[in-house]
Design brief:
The complex is a heterodimer. By secondary structure, chain A is mainly alpha-helical. Helices cover 52% and strands 3% of the residues of chain A. The chains are: A mainly alpha, B mainly beta.
Amino acid sequence: MSLIFRRILFVFLLGLTATLVNGVARAQSAAMPSPHRTIRLTSQKITLPFGDKVFAGDGKIVKVTNQHCLLCHSRGMIDTQPPLTLDTWKKEVDKMRTAYGCPLRADQTAEIADFIAHAASAPAPNGN
Amino acid sequence: MEALVNPTDYVNAESPAPSTSGPLPRRSFLKMTAGLIAGGILGRSLPAFAAKLIQLPFANGSRQLVRFPQKGEMILLRQRPPLLETPFEVFDRGVFTPNEQFFVRWHLPVIPTSIDVNTFRLRVDGHVRTPIELSLKEILRQPQIELAAINQCSGNSRGFSSPRVPGGEWGNGAMGNALWTGVTLKSILDRAGVLPGAVQVRFNGLDTGQMPETPLFMKSLDLDHAMDGEVMVAYGMNGTQLPMLNGFPLRLIVPGWYSTYWVKMLSHIEVLDKPDDNYWMHTAYLIPDTPGGTMAPDAKDVKMVPINRLVPRSFITNLRDNATVRRGVPIAVRGIAFGGDTGVKSVDFSSDGGTTWQNAALGKDYGRYSFRRWNATFVAKQPGDYKLMVKATNSNDLAQPATPTWNPGGFMRNVIEQVTVHTA
């Protein structure tokens, strides 16, 4: 056998093996090769609502709550919570500070939790 | 093409409410606006517009129905970053959930509002032979696969947790089923060449936090899972490109696993040579290492592990709680079921609160990760209430539990559902 023929045979066998292995893999997989479906991708641009409802009032704690809690999420996150204990609210506020980088001082969390626990207990239409 | 938004398409809750509502303090608004403009979010508030309200069946379950860009009517849980739930009646219409009513869940508030398909790149690096950047054109040229798969939020149905837990208070609509078109993750990793010693693959999208300290939303899969030929990078959802809010232009699809792994606006794949210890794998999205992820609410020192495979669920979709049915005639009941990380073996239906069960007929099989339609009938012979229940068992013989599981994250709820109807 000439060298060139042996090389062609080798490549052919390699291809055949790959096809067989592929076939087996596909038989075990829920993923199906599709008859090529044309998905057209076109550039997209949208505008998202900000959700700027705040807690009303002039108190210092209202201001601190609005400036910190509503920095990363709209008020809907608070208004849709179930009735929670003050302790749970404290843990939630503290998680925002320690895990998510909310620029609060540790000594502000208890006061915010107390404010939210009361403000969130009688919310009007949810979901802002 | 630009899909611009008509502001009157929105509904929001500026309205009459509350003494607790008022203008945003100017300084903080400017501060926030500066950050958000930098992040590409320009929209501020939208005018109030005859809010339609619905009530989810748990305490503090009042919700508005709203329309976000490229989406149809959805249940609003939070505007920023958006949490939008699929109205439950959508699941009665078919086993594939339409893109415009597919649920939406973002963790981080700075979400790109425009994507240019010509400049977008998917970066693959880390423990690989050749770091690469793929254009969408290159990805579209690769061999294509398709797969029907359910995308279900880890916390779907969290609002039903008892005792209640904090979090996104979803009803049952934080799930959907779609036909996903794309390429295998394996084919992309093979192009970069995974090096010996790799253990996990980490995924990141284009969304970021408002504060630099907020951990980027990154999730990881073990290497053998990532290379299984089913995990895919999808550019198609039900035959068309994805809506922006569902992850356009590329989304990771992890069939049979909870949605937390299905990274949206996927832009970076990083092969790791040690297990990922980032916040979203190590601290968040943990479940008790017990069957069904359940624990007693007062249990201490429970071993926790990252959430993973879906568990079976089934729902009645054509009869709502408190519906009235006719006496003495066959009543058709139908719904959807899924097996989780494997197919549906059987669905059982009861019209007597679980005392007796009948095998429901199963509809067309779109693959083991898909919703499956089921049908049954019953006759209300006597006047009164009928407690209808449905239970799915998957191909691994895992059945839905009769009592609810519980964990502090409100994850993986899959108790047998029930609907009470009464005779006319």
